[in-house]
């Protein structure tokens, strides 16, 4: 197991280094921040001094080396726009996004999987057909439309839910969280539901396909032949067997939701990372873009590592080879 | 064991009468079981024999109440100790399953849950019918494993299925089936997926267990010989009907029904070696097309042709980048490389059929692949008439066509998206054995030669049965006009009657085309029937080789002796069998 962890850490390093090069070059190919940073009527001297100050006169590779050098001292640079250290800026926004994403993904899995398993267990019943039809809808309805509808119905018409913002927060380990107060929780529900919709449908369909296939397998037949009840078969045999593809998708979806919660965050004015990255792209705030993309790459490799470790936990056949 | 009188039904444990289980299909109902009646007395072993599609498994699943949707029992009665099972509510049936009737399946790897430990699976089965504490569960589970002769049950109870061998897995499944001391156990092909020697062990242990516990057994199998060695009574099934039933010895030695006779006559173990099976009087198949050119280095019949010299094949475990760096830096050899074939010398004479026999994992298939030049040996050489068959990973174009392979699974080895005509002509066209214009006629000739309608050239593989597909696979191999054909378990997945036809075809084509064959099989009776010389392999090495008659009559090696002893044999009738008339 130790060797496996070491190997994965090594792979993660390579991914992060490759990512830093790609991101750095890519971001520098987009626009010229000088035009945004300096007012058009500034003098030529001021222009030159600002360019020199940010190092834009250097060749790209030298800028990259400078960036890496600062990185080693855990300095991601300063935001052009907010004029504060990027690491501070991102860390102040990360908990909000993490909270929202986790709520969405957990809801999608904890509710979606049992529903999907039911639909796979009774594939021909009316309820299952209705579930499947609705899950198609869940795939095809655009997130922004669904979000606007949620606001229209629950915030505007009924007035029972807040339309946006994080609400009251509680400080825990030095960061602010919404889910611990009633007000914060009510602010969390709608955006989490909106963000969960696609994943919810995905989990239902995955759980249904897996369950449907397994119900015809010899494993289930043998368990039935031993007189084990249907509920125990579903809970102990089927759930364990379908959990491997589910965990894979859970990991991937968790990562991508974390990175691309933008639409939902914008609609519900959730002060998360998504809004920050959109703002920094429009204002060509390069240090924020680079740091954000690197953070996402790191989170992805981390999530994948956890998923891999979970595989070994779920499937004993994988344990031996990696021990 | 003495068989109880056949007409006895009053004290029957299970009484099945006029059972009909149908499956709705595209073209009306499929009558999988169509009016089957039999009874099983307490402690009795009933064998149900039949080929695939005969309805024998569906009969078993009907009894235990596990017919898959949309199948249903449309008529009949299944009485367990006088109580009707058909129409019972699901919960009542569940209480019977595992406690009074239980079942063992063909493939224990598929039946056991791969992600739950053996102990957990036994616990779930125990808790299905009893309320017991964790301590007693463990004790009972250990006792159950000990009962089916699993060594160190205290330790093995925490194992997962993949940590057991195939035979051990089946023992675990049997242990689960016997947990609640059921009155009836239904075994659906329980030894088919196992090696001969394991099969023999399981058979004798099962026999002892059921007589100790007084459990009745329904033993469903396509293999007449295993049924003969365990069953008191036998029912022979064909397309949903029982065509013949009675005491096992009587049915297997003095069969009354033509179908039973045909089944028995199809067995190679009942014919003299080399003889055509079934002795059917049908029209002989057409002769295959003539060879375009005979290579000038072909040796005379009976002289050494394909020479395998000290071949070794090592399958190294794939190592990741980091592991490779690690070993590269340390200068050490990667661990746990296993030799699938470990120094084998074989000389195949021209025109000879050489049998390669071994249990799973013996390296026989790997050897076959190296002989055919599909994979390169790690060391050693394979030469055909002096030319290397494969060196440094590439095959010389000339030799390629001269060695062909027929694989075990005719469903996997034919490309489902190609028409039969394309499948047969692809190779010969690529090697310019025929021209485009000649191709359609060439394909028709080959189809006729393997006993298929020449008009089938435009069909796709899925339109054929398993036996027909294997004929196509044979035609594909032979259309390349090879001298040597490597047959890797070509009849292992086929029913006995189809197996007999394929064996006949190989016997005929071999003499018509002067072929040399390497025939890889785990089935000792088929090998005896077909082969001139036999090589016995174990763990990548040859343990014994020699003329087929000599090895079967006077085996020298201990392992060979064990293999031959484990071979299930049919009781031979005194008078012998009269041949069945007419084809199937």
From TrEMBL, chain A:
InterPro entries (UniProt xref): BPD_transp_1_N, MetI-like, MetI-like_sf
Membrane-topology descriptor: Multi-pass membrane protein
Localization terms from the record: Cell membrane
CDD domains: TM_PBP2 (cd06261)
Bilayer-crossing regions: 12-31, 100-121, 133-157, 177-198, 244-270, 290-314
Keywords tagged on the record: Cell membrane, Membrane, Transmembrane, Transmembrane helix, Transport
A Pfam family the protein falls into: BPD_transp_1
Keyword Repeat: no
Domain ABC transmembrane type-1 as annotated: residue spans: 94-311
Gene Ontology terms describing biological process: transmembrane transport
GO cellular component: plasma membrane
Family the entry assigns: Belongs to the binding-protein-dependent transport system permease family.
Name of the protein: ABC transporter permease
Native organism: Bradyrhizobium betae
Lineage start: Bacteria, Pseudomonadati, Pseudomonadota, Alphaproteobacteria, Hyphomicrobiales
TrEMBL record, chain B:
Keyword hit for Ribosomal protein: no
Gene3D superfamilies named among the record's database cross-references: P-loop containing nucleotide triphosphate hydrolases
Name assigned to this protein: ABC transporter ATP-binding protein
Family: Belongs to the ABC transporter superfamily.
Signal peptide: none
Transmembrane segments: none
GO biological process terms on file: peptide transport; transmembrane transport
Localisation per UniProt entry: Cell inner membrane
GO molecular function: ATP binding; ATP hydrolysis activity
Pfam families (alphabetical): ABC_tran (PF00005), oligo_HPY (PF08352)
Membrane topology: Peripheral membrane protein
Gene Ontology CC entries for this record: plasma membrane
Function, in words: Involved in beta-(1-->2)glucan export. Transmembrane domains (TMD) form a pore in the inner membrane and the ATP-binding domain (NBD) is responsible for energy generation.
Residue intervals of the ABC transporter domain: 14-264, 306-564
Lineage: Bacteria, Pseudomonadati, Pseudomonadota, Alphaproteobacteria, Hyphomicrobiales
Annotated InterPro entries: AAA+_ATPase, ABC_transp_ATP-bind, ABC_transporter-like_ATP-bd, ABC_transporter-like_CS, Oligopep_ABC_C, P-loop_NTPase
SUPFAM superfamilies, per the entry: P-loop containing nucleoside triphosphate hydrolases
Keywords per UniProt: ATP-binding, Nucleotide-binding, Transport
């Amino acid at each position: 197991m130790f060797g496996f962890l070491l190997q994965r850490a090594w792979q993660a390093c390579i991914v992060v280094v490759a990512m830093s090069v790609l991101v750095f070059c890519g971001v520098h190919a987009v626009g010229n921040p000088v035009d945004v940073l300096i007012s058009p009527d500034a003098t030529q001297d001021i222009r030159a001094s600002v360019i020199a100050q940010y190092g834009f006169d250097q060749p790209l590779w030298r800028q990259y080396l400078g960036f890496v050098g600062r990185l080693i001292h855990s300095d991601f640079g300063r935001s052009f726009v907010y004029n504060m250290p990027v690491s501070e800026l991102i860390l102040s926004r990360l908990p909000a996004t993490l909270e929202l994403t986790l709520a969405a993904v957990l809801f999608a899995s904890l509710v979606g999987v049992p529903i999907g398993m039911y639909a796979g267990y009774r594939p021909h019943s009316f309820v299952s057909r209705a579930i499947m039809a609705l899950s198609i809808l869940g795939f095809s309805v655009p997130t922004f439309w669904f979000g606007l509808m949620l606001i229209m119905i629950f915030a505007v018409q009924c007035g029972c839910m807040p339309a946006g913002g994080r609400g009251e927060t509680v400080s825990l380990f030095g960061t602010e969280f919404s889910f611990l107060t009633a007000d914060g929780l009510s602010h969390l529900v709608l955006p989490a539901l909106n963000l969960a919709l696609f994943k919810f449908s995905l989990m239902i369909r995955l759980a249904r396909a897996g369950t449907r296939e397994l119900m015809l397998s010899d494993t289930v037949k043998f368990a039935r032949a031993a007189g084990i009840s249907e509920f125990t078969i579903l809970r102990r045999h089927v759930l364990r067997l379908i959990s491997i593809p589910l965990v894979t998708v859970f990991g991937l979806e968790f990562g991508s939701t974390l990175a691309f919660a933008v639409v939902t965050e914008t609609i519900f004015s959730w002060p998360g990372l998504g809004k920050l990255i959109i703002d920094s792209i429009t204002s060509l705030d390069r240090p924020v873009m680079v740091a954000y993309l690197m953070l996402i790459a790191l989170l992805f490799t981390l999530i994948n590592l956890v998923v891999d470790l979970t595989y070994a936990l779920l499937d004993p056949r994988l344990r031996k080879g990696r021990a | 064991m003495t068989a109880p009188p056949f007409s006895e039904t009053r004290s029957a444990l299970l009484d099945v009468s006029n059972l009909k289980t149908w499956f709705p299909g595209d073209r009306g109902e499929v009558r999988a079981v169509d009016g089957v009646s039999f009874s099983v007395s307490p402690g009795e072993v009933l064998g149900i024999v039949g080929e695939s599609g005969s309805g024998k498994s569906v009969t078993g699943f009907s009894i235990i109440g596990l017919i898959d949707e949309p199948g249903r029992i449309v008529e009949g009665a299944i009485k367990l100790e006088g109580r009707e099972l058909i129409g019972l509510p699901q919960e009542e049936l569940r209480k019977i399953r595992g406690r009074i009737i239980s079942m063992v399946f063909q493939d224990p790897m598929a039946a056991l849950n791969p992600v739950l430990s053996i102990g957990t699976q036994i616990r779930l089965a125990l808790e299905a019918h009893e309320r017991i504490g964790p301590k007693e569960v463990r004790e009972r589970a250990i006792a159950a494993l000990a009962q089916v002769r699993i060594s160190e049950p205290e330790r093995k109870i925490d194992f997962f299925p993949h940590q057991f061998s195939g035979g051990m897995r089946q023992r675990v499944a049997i242990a689960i089936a016997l947990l609640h001391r059921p009155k009836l156990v239904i075994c659906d092909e329980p030894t088919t997926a196992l090696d001969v020697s394991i099969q023999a062990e399981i058979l004798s242990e099962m026999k002892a267990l059921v007589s100790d516990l007084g459990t009745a057994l329904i033993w469903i199998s396509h293999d007449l010989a295993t049924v003969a060695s365990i069953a008191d009574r036998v029912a022979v099934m064909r397309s949903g009907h029982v065509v013949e039933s009675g005491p096992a010895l009587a049915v297997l030695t003095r069969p009354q029904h033509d179908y039973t006779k045909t089944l028995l006559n199809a067995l190679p173990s009942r014919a003299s070696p080399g003889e055509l099976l079934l002795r059917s009087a049908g029209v002989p198949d057409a002769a295959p097309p003539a060879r375009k050119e005979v290579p000038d280095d072909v040796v005379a019949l009976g002289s050494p042709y394909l020479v395998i010299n000290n071949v070794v094949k090592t399958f190294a475990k794939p190592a990741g980048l980091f592991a490779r760096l690690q070993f590269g830096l340390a200068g050490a050899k990667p661990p746990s490389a296993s030799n699938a074939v470990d120094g084998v010398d074989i000389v195949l004479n021209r025109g000879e059929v050489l049998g390669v026999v071994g249990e799973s994992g013996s390296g026989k298939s790997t050897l076959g692949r190296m002989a055919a030049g599909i994979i390169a040996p790690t060391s050693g050489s394979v030469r055909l008439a002096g030319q290397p068959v494969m060196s440094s990973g590439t095959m010389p174009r000339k030799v390629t066509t001269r060695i062909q392979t027929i694989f075990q699974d005719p469903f996997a080895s034919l490309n489902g998206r190609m028409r039969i005509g394309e499948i047969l002509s692809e190779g010969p066209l690529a090697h310019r054995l025929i021209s485009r214009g000649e191709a359609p006629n060439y394909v028709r000739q080959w189809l006729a030669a393997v006993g298929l309608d020449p008009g089938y050239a435009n069909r796709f593989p899925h339109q054929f049965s398993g036996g027909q597909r294997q004929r196509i696979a044979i035609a594909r191999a032979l259309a390349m006009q090879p001298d040597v054909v490597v047959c890797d378990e070509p009849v292992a997945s086929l029913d006995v009657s189809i197996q007999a036809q394929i064996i006949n075809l190989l016997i005929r084509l071999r003499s018509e085309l002067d072929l040399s064959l390497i025939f890889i099989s785990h089935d000792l009776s088929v090998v005896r029937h077909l082969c001139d010389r036999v090589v016995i392999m174990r763990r990548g090495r040859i343990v014994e080789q020699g003329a087929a008659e000599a090895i079967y009559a006077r085996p020298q090696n201990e392992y060979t002796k064990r293999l031959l002893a484990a071979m299930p044999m049919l009781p031979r009738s005194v008078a012998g069998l009269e041949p069945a008339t007419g084809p199937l």
